[in-house]
Amino acid sequence: MSRTPTAAPVDDPCVDDPSVVDSEQLKRVLDGRHHGLREEIRAAHDADWFTPRLHVDEQAHQAWVGEAMQRLTRTPHQVLGFPTAYGGADQVGASVAAFEMLALGDLSLTVKSGVQWGLFGGAVQALGTQVHHDRYLPSIIDFSLPGCFAMTETGHGSDVQGLRTTAVYDPAAEEFVVHTPEDSACKDYIGNAARDGRMAVVFARLVTHGEDRGVHALLVPIRDEAGVTAAGVDIEDCGPKAGLAGVDNGRLRFDHVRVPREALLDRYAHVAADGTYSSPIASANRRFFSMLGALVRGRLSISGAAISATKVGLDVAVRYGQERRQFSDPSTGEEVRLLDHPSHQRKLVPAVARAYAFTFAQAALVEELQAGHDGRLDQSASRRLETDIAAVKAGATWNASRTLQTAREACGGAGYLASSRLPELRADTDVFTTFEGDNTVLMQLVAKNLLTAYAAGAAGGLGAARTLVRSLASRVADRVRVPWPTDVLDPARQVALLREREEHVLDGLARRLRAAVSAGADPTAAASAAQDHMQVLGRAHVDRLLAVAFDERVRSCGEGADAGPTADLLARVRDLFVLSRLEEDMAWFLAHGRLGRADARAVTRHVDRLCAELRPHAVALVDAFGIAPAWSARTTTTGGQQGLAA
Amino acid sequence: MSRTPTAAPVDDPCVDDPSVVDSEQLKRVLDGRHHGLREEIRAAHDADWFTPRLHVDEQAHQAWVGEAMQRLTRTPHQVLGFPTAYGGADQVGASVAAFEMLALGDLSLTVKSGVQWGLFGGAVQALGTQVHHDRYLPSIIDFSLPGCFAMTETGHGSDVQGLRTTAVYDPAAEEFVVHTPEDSACKDYIGNAARDGRMAVVFARLVTHGEDRGVHALLVPIRDEAGVTAAGVDIEDCGPKAGLAGVDNGRLRFDHVRVPREALLDRYAHVAADGTYSSPIASANRRFFSMLGALVRGRLSISGAAISATKVGLDVAVRYGQERRQFSDPSTGEEVRLLDHPSHQRKLVPAVARAYAFTFAQAALVEELQAGHDGRLDQSASRRLETDIAAVKAGATWNASRTLQTAREACGGAGYLASSRLPELRADTDVFTTFEGDNTVLMQLVAKNLLTAYAAGAAGGLGAARTLVRSLASRVADRVRVPWPTDVLDPARQVALLREREEHVLDGLARRLRAAVSAGADPTAAASAAQDHMQVLGRAHVDRLLAVAFDERVRSCGEGADAGPTADLLARVRDLFVLSRLEEDMAWFLAHGRLGRADARAVTRHVDRLCAELRPHAVALVDAFGIAPAWSARTTTTGGQQGLAA
Questions:
Q1: Alpha helix (H) ranges present in B32-173?
Q2: What are the helix and strand counts (H, E) for chain B?
Q3: Which of A54, A240, A439 is closest, CB to CB, to B55?
Q4: A637 at B interface, C-beta within 8 A
Q5: What CA–CA distance (Å, rounded) separates B320 from B637?
Q6: Catalytic one among A436, A500, A502, A503?
Q7: Cβ count near A347 (within 10 Å)
Q8: I need a surface site. Which of A190, A227, A618, B645 has the fewest CB within 10 A?
Q9: In A86-152, which ranges are continuous DSSP H helix?
Q10: Which pLDDT value is given to residue B57?
Q11: Using CA atoms in the order A150, A156, A162, A163, what is the torsion angle rounded to 10 degrees?
């Protein structure tokens, strides 16, 4: 395996030629720091990597994915995040960008590679120590040791602390005994398990000296090199799924399986030969969350993959809307292109704007992830990053489901045919909303973290003063019944509206919980009763993150007098993104006196106007996603298999 | 084939036992007039009709559907709508109810049967005359003549008037020449075409004496009895689709195919031997819409099927939410059932309420359909029925997509496995939103029809006065900035709110279009610019229809002092339905001064409360759907194929 990890980040290529809107320039803006790497991958992957596999059954699809994995090992891109010493480049940000590029193609391959290098390899890297790295990373990287990430159980997915698989230490043998005590403790939906996996990172309750030390991760062989299932391990195929047919998801059951003491991934906890347990982190709870925190890259990767799949769907639907005509214009007698119908613009143009917004927010988080990897983030910044990754993952995956559904409907019957790729995209990404963290649970995590930071701020000096001022301002605004008209086209005001909403919701939630607890409620019960409030907060946080990231990106390209046409176009896409979000959540802004009824009408008017103004640029806006035609079957208006445009 | 069409409608069985909430009683309320027929079908269809076909490829699934179609011919239920003389019962309402029952099982079988008996048979019945009925209905009914409904073309789906296939009359031979003049005129996505169909009702531009008479329907043989494709006909399989793998969708191309003069379905237009064209309807436009109007049963059937599939999904998800536990309650140490988490209730309980609302609205339309079939509707009532069917079809199919998606996510990874049935339900129903009328286009049709009725009302005496009063009231309300608090729990007020919104939107739209036309705009251009306004009107119309139908059903079960627990429960389900709709569209009610900020808070509070109050009844509420466990694979918390509960 020859590997030259040259794809180092390049400088941000946001240059502007003041002459004309150029999708190549827009592409550079969207590609961001990793433009060079992305272009390298675009050049390296031909149609063979991407063409949808029509008529292929699960077995054949899984076999194809297996071969494609081998081909991937001959390029450096997917393993850039591993340490340089083992053939990587220590570039976790670049590895996420490479994963995003892969996700423009076959999503089964994408998820399979994510299981191998992101989850399995990532866990060995992040939770293991030198001995595990030396022994396993090379064969993980070259895929000669296919592995699984066995965390979820049938009865425990979101509540990882409640896992029931046990790993009891036997000092006599210096071994752990890994066991599945009940049906609902089977490891379930585990990628790479049904066909290929030879080893699994198994999350289990560690028991030493009879004491439950909480959930830890151990390496457990599940098959030998010949593919024979290990003794005491039972593997069952999960059977057909909604999508991702090329991924071999399975169910694992352990019957007192013995692994050596070194099987414990011991970065956060060590078990001595005699069974003495020690950890660099005293609090069991903090230890557990440090362990999970080390795994956020997987979550950010899924977010990126969801954004990529969304772009492919929009690429297909926008081109179809451009080609396909329906209903005659009586003034010309000509049939009207779908995209010239305002109701069609309303479906697709704001969706394109959302894809831009998520791209910029994702890029900002990828930067932060690399900063964390390089040790440039302090503890509070790390925690903020975890919060924001959870938020954007939930937002991006829900947005993928929604947008791909819209894209499918916008292509009518043609969008229902597998040849359009839309059914596959929709079905493959569907599980993204509930794996790598169930979105609803992630939003509660976001809210909880924001509350924690808020409480910390309230306890501090300056923070407390600011909080108080905001809280008062919120209450005052809440009483103002006829709000002043606001300039909804002022970008600063747009971002401020979304920021103020988040602060208001956070402040209201904090007050609600405080009041409940003061009145004698159990804090968990109080939080449980406020779940819907927490969801609102999570979504408000996502919107704010997206608006800020988009706005910063536009500013970095120049705005106002010195803006070229690309920057100007981008600014209008940002306006459309923010205004269509305001329009969707107008009830909140009206009910809380943040916008008035005249504003509400103005927002809708501007959304209509921006959809019409951006419509002539719709194809350029999706061209900028940089999806080579060969990668994506495109539904055309003439139909049939010939309908896959070249 | 022995057939005893005994399943005559029974009296409405809404009796109430004042002792306890009984899902059997709720089932009778939901079943409505056709309770007896539904029970008969429940008894007749065992698991073999319904068990999801895991691991089955398209060919095998299509073969199974073919066999099941043969089995269906041995029961009378699906063909109750055909004339008694041919073995039916002249009960179109009952035929829709039977179709709804079938849709609790395999949706490929459902759609296949709908193509054969609803679309193909329905077109022969509604557009043909005695000669066609005598010659074809018996073999359509016993499925010895499988047929297609070839309306949609690759380039023309929603715009049926723009179809390009031609049928040119040749007086010398007394034949029509059916021809596909261009690629985009291929008949596309045609069910029954790729494998089984032997004849097609082909919609084509009729040309006689060189004159284009508009779109008409003709019977064109496409295969002989041995299954050999007819000369001049080219048939292509549409290939894999998102769902409905058991339906053989194909693409038809005609190369100057000759059919005899009697092939024209001539209820609305006749061509004499010499080519003289005549019609009982003078206006070409009215003739065309009469023809389409005769086919609304198909649309109502899809609406019913969507509602059935939604119920199956809710049945699966509610039971899973009842069984599966996640996160411990610190006060008890016990893990909490998913359905006891408020955020989970918020996902599923309002969705159950929506399923109830759609069921009642659908039942009301089925009654009207039968009334129309019996000649009991005048022209304006018929037109209103067409409008309402379009509205409820769009609403019910969008609701199916949305609710099945929610149900899938509410089951997490288990919901992604085919064994849960949710992926199949989601994928199979997906195309419902764009076939039998694209929903967006249907909503525009609804708005257009409402505008026409409004204009007719405005032109008349009383109507005009009422319209003027309403219009003034709307404008006044629009200026009232601080609306009075309203009793959102008063059912009359709830319905009034939704009715007033519809009237306000309709009035505003009418004024907008009038103003545009007065200012010199072309009427089509003005309507095009107002497409989004028309969508809002269509959705407002759906909400009003649902609320009225639900409210009437509750009233018919008794309310207030004399209400038993079932009626009381139903009233709370209605409240939840209406309030959650108000909550979702709160922006409109606030922006138009129909509800105030205190109302908005009250609505959210009541939705929260009703979710919690109805939660203990969640299983009873889905039990009342009457889905036998054997029909529906249910995902359990222990996973695996064993996870299909008996």
A1: 35-44, 58-72, 92-102, 107-113, 121-127, 130-141
A2: 22, 13
A3: A240
A4: yes
A5: 7
A6: A436
A7: 21
A8: A227
A9: 92-102, 107-113, 121-127, 130-141
A10: 83
A11: -30
DSSP conformational letter for A119: I
Neighbours of A469 (CB within 10 A): 10
Please answer yes or no on whether B593 and A593 come within 8 Å at the CB atom: no
For residue A528, list chain B residues with Cβ-Cβ distance below 8 A: 341-342
Within the 361-380 window of chain A, which residues sit less than 8 Å (CB to CB) from chain B? Answer: none
Calpha distance B288→A465 (Å, rounded): 71
For residue A133, the model assigns a pLDDT of: 98
CA distances from B502 to B217, B402, B460, B496, B538 (A): 36, 23, 20, 10, 9
Q: Which DSSP string corresponds to B204-249?
A: EEEEETTEEEEEEEEEEE-B-TT-PBPTTEEEEE---BSS-TTS--
pLDDT band at residue B351 using 50, 70 and 90 as cut-offs: very high
Query: How far is A565 from A581, CA to CA, in rounded Å?
Result: 24
Please indicate if any CB of chain A lies within 8 Å of the CB of B325: yes
> Quick check: is B174 catalytic?
no
Backbone angles phi, psi at A457, to 5 degrees: -65, -40
| ipTM for the whole complex | 0.91
| pTM over 0.90, yes/no | yes
How close, in Å, is residue B248 to chain A by CA atoms? 12
The tens digit of pLDDT for each residue in B609-643 reads 999 999 999 999 999 999 977 666 555 554 433 33
Question: Inter-chain contact A434–B412, Cβ cutoff 8 Å?
Answer: yes
Does the CB of B636 have a partner CB in chain A at under 8 Å?
A: no
The one-letter amino acid code at A268 reads Y
Mind listing the pLDDT tens digit for each residue in B162-176?
Answer: 999 999 999 999 999
Write out pLDDT tens, residues A573-590.
Answer: 999 999 999 999 999 999
Q: Is A175 on the interface with B (CB under 8 A)?
A: no
Helix pair B439-459, B461-479: axis angle to 10 deg: 110
Question: Quick one: tokens of B231?
Answer: 């000369």
Please give the structure tokens belonging to residue B18. Answer: 């004042």
pLDDT of residue A51: 53
Chain B residue nearest residue A330, CA to CA = B524
- Inter-chain residue contact A640 with B535, CB threshold 8 Å: no
Report how far apart, in Å, the C-alpha atoms of A492 and of each of A487, A578, B208 are. 10, 11, 66
Min distance A106 CA to chain B CA atoms (Å) = 16
Matching residue, tokens 């998800």: B317
Mutate: best of B416, B429, B536, partner A, most A CBs <10 A: B416
pLDDT of residue A10: 43
Q: What is the pLDDT of residues B321-336, one digit of tens each?
A: 999 999 988 888 899 9
Q: Of these residues, B40, B100, B424, B436, which one is catalytic?
A: B436
Q: How far is A372 from chain B (nearest CA, A)?
A: 30
- CA B178 to chain centroid, in Å, comes to 31
Structure tokens belonging to residue A566? 């690309």
**A459: pLDDT strictly greater than 90:** no
List of chain B residues whose C-beta atoms are within 8 Å of the C-beta of residue A444: 343
Instruction: Tell me the helices (H) and strands (E) count for chain A, helix number first.
Output: 22, 13
- Token readout for B252 is 């038809």
